[in-house]
Amino acid sequence: MSKKIILTGATGMVGGHLLDICLASEQVTEVISIGRKRTEKQHAKLQEVLVPDLLTYSPNDSKLENVDVAFFCIGVYTGAVARDVFRKITVDMPVSFAKTLYQYAPNAKFCLLSGSGADRSEQSRMIFAQDKGAAENQLAAIGFHAFHTFRPGYIYPVVKREAPNAMYSISRALYPLIRLMGKNASIKSTELAQGMFNVGMDSQNVTEVFENKNILEQL
């Protein structure tokens, strides 16, 4: 069955791989990329919508109608921005976008790129865990046909990219050792994108939470 896909974060590490997978798939007939920057890709399936701020996104046409799957891949590294901005990007932005999408496509699947340690109790002392858990809670309550959240551990960038800080450079160098720590410790960016895609395309899969090892099981 052909699918219409919405993708945010298509210029990012995981979203970029997801875009390539969607465009190459015979299951996908249309991909709408929504974001602040163009992907610079040319493809008959691809439409790009430039939106300065998803918190104020209000579509004035039918682009969001009949969407089958939405992949939300926008995120920010902990410590890269102020506390209020981190909350805005991690919680307010995906929830605001999802509520807008729900008005047009309530039968869609909504797939969130979350993170390992997301705390649904929202009581964690770690800002990352608290906010990721809050985002998951609010998105799950919207009422989509299905909601899936993906909680990867360390994401190894298959395509080398500028590291946001020294810790990420160290983690990349130590990746062979991190892999030895087990299936919940790490995942390649290409594996994460493929796992998310496979779940999104599987109409029978109703599992809500995918930890790192569960994502790998979808490959």
What can be said about this structure in brief?
The chain has 7 helices and 9 strands; from the N terminus they run E-H-E-E-E-H-E-H-E-E-H-H-E-H-E-H. It has helices spanning 13-24, 83-104, 127-140, 166-173, 175-179, 189-201, 212-216, and strands at residues 3-8, 28-35, 46-50, 69-72, 109-113, 146-151, 154-156, 186-188, 209-211. The longest helix is centred in the middle third of the chain and has 22 residues, at 83-104.
Structural Rg? 16 Å
**Structure annotation, total helices:** 7
- Segments where pLDDT lies below 50 for 5+ residues? none
What is the approximate shape?
globular
Taking all residues together, what is the mean pLDDT?
Answer: 92
What assembly state would you assign to the polypeptide chains in this entry? Answer: single chain
Name the beta content range: 15-25%
CATH superfamily: NAD(P)-binding Rossmann-like Domain
Strands of the largest sheet, in order across it? 3-2-1-4-5-6-9
CATH architecture descriptor text? 3-Layer(aba) Sandwich
Secondary-structure element series: EHEEEHEHEEHHEHEH
* Domains (count): 1
* Helix fraction bin: 25-40%
Please name the CATH topology: Rossmann fold
Tell me the major beta sheet.
7 strands, parallel
The total count of strands amounts to 9
Structural class by sheet pairing and helices: alpha/beta
Termini Cα gap: 20 Å
Return the CATH class: Alpha Beta
